[in-house]
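re: ur question from earlier - yeah i can do the single chain one, its not a big deal. heres the input i used so u can compare w yours
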Amino acid sequence: MQTKTPRRGAIRLTRRGWIALIATGAVVAATAVAVPLLLPDDKPTRPESLTIPEGWRSGQVYGAIDKVLGVPSGTTKKSLPKAGLKLPGDAGGNPEGYLFPATYPISSRSTPASVLSYMVNTATKRFNGGKVTAGADRKAVNIYQTVTIASMIEAEAGSKADMGKVARVIYNRLDQGMPLQLDSTINYALNRSTLDTRDSDTKINSPYNTYVRMGLPPTPIGNPGEEAVRAATSPAQGDWLYFVTVKPGDTRFTSSFEEQQKNVAEFNKHKKSAS
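and the output i got, formated as tokens:
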């Protein structure tokens, strides 16, 4: 979260700020079990497992499944209509948020549909319970909304220690009828992962533009891990409405717009000197 600086068109950074975002291909290479070095007479074998990192979007997961199963690009996504995934009705058949980050076994019998089902079933088991009442006014949010909130926490928090505070900012802004103004939702709308968000980006026409649209985005914006879900169901206590990561390890939360502006100015100053 970061309010606009007075200078029009200034570059703005997402919450992760100085934490490098991981490119899809790089993470797949780093996290999926590597295929053993083959001798000339050996036949290729599938890796025995696939690791999905916290916060990956569905598109990244589909690509990783295609790669680990050795099927043409796009095969996993095309399998969705016939996969029979047990998703909540609110999801409308979209598994975003329910492809739970974990390490999954892969065998010769694994198919895109079976791997997706394994992930969704794992998510359903982890996202158990009826409703949580985390808002200051005790308004209940359902499980799907909780997963949506957790996905934003996963994308926005600079560290696991900050997740509970980020969750509280989201609930406080919802309770007070304020737009969430989260850069991570704009990145999702633009199908990108970037550290920079421009003022012009905050004006895009999208249901995921939480600068101009009230309430939650229509779906999760990624697949949150257990810590983010825990933060969404048990947020920290506080009156914060704003936050910004000024520098690595220094994320500042405040309820004061004036103090937020000072923190943003310090962030911009630090960013300029670092570059």
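The beta strands are 11-13, 49-51, 103-105, 196-198, 242-247, 250-254. not sure if urs matches, ping me
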